[in-house]
Amino acid sequence: MSQTDLSSVAQALVAAGKGILAADESAPTIKKRFDSIQVESSEDNRRNYREMLFTTDGASEFISGVILFDETLRQSSRAGKRLVDVLKDQGVLSGIKVDKGAKDFALHAGEKCTEGLDGLRERLAEYAELGATFAKWRAVITIGDGIPSQACIDVNAHGLARYAALCQEAGLVPIVEPEVLMDGTHTIETSACATGRALHATFNELVRQGVDLSGMLLKPNMVLSGYGCDTQASVTEVAEATVNCFRKHVPAAVPGIVFLSGGQDDELATAHLDAMNRMDEGLRPWQLSFSYGRALQAPTLKAWGGKDDQEADGQAAYLHRARMNGAARFGRWDASMEEGAQRGDTLVSQD
What we know:
The protein has helices at residues 3-13, 27-35, 43-54, 70-73, 83-88, 120-129, 150-170, 188-208, 235-249, 266-277, 294-304, 311-329, 337-342; strands at 19-23, 63-68, 93-97, 102-104, 112-114, 134-141, 173-180, 217-218, 256-259, 287-292. By secondary structure, it is α/β, with parallel strands linked by helices. Helix 7 packs across helix 8 (188-208) and helix 10 packs parallel to helix 12 (311-329). The radius of gyration is 19 Å and the shape is globular.
């Protein structure tokens, strides 16, 4: 895929009013989520749940792409149609999680280094053959006593850049995810400092390794107070701190920033995204979008409950959250819209 094609795919993923569903939970993670609703994490149940999401009428108005787990990329629907094709028929792009997880970083207590570069070139070629058009790699940066260390930031930035270069070589758009975790008692100022350091190192490596910034997307954390901090920043403070941090460290050549939701509840993640998109356009040269997992799926799981006769309820809950985040993409979300959207009201126009 040429640089022009990579850029076109990246731009399609952050099209106006749209964002990405992160449905790439590993086997242990999806088991935890199914355990919360007392549903067995069998292959069929995982397939049925994700098929329910992917076949939700109207969701493609707000969802441009879906990040899949290896298992899901290879699965077919109950009717025998490949799930990649189910998405493709709705104009939704399929992506794939390709890292092998964050492991303990040797000689650096409390810090992680993401693995998965071995054999990645061959895996990317196979994923492209299976229908993936983009990929995702997550690095984890922890804030704590004396951390993050520069060594941890640098080794993860290097891995992200190597992954991104391999993706572009294979014709896949890389989503680069340097996530600074918000677990802890730190202030929003400490979060901004750690996030800035991670972004600075990541883009230095991306440029050094020749990655085309116009053919990638960034999936970062928002700049928040630590979840255990006694003083939580307001929605406006989070929006301003996040945009100001990213203006300093993210080149304008990057088409879009697709935020992760982290540990935020679904409505708060929407509120923060909305507040950022209400800010002056001159302050945000990139599209500010979403790549949410839990913040799109938590209400869906609860409404579905693993019951076939409640699939419509699960789809309604998913469509509701997708619609709300679609509104936030335009800076048009309001808390009063939540109840209306649950009734199925049309709240967002794409014009």
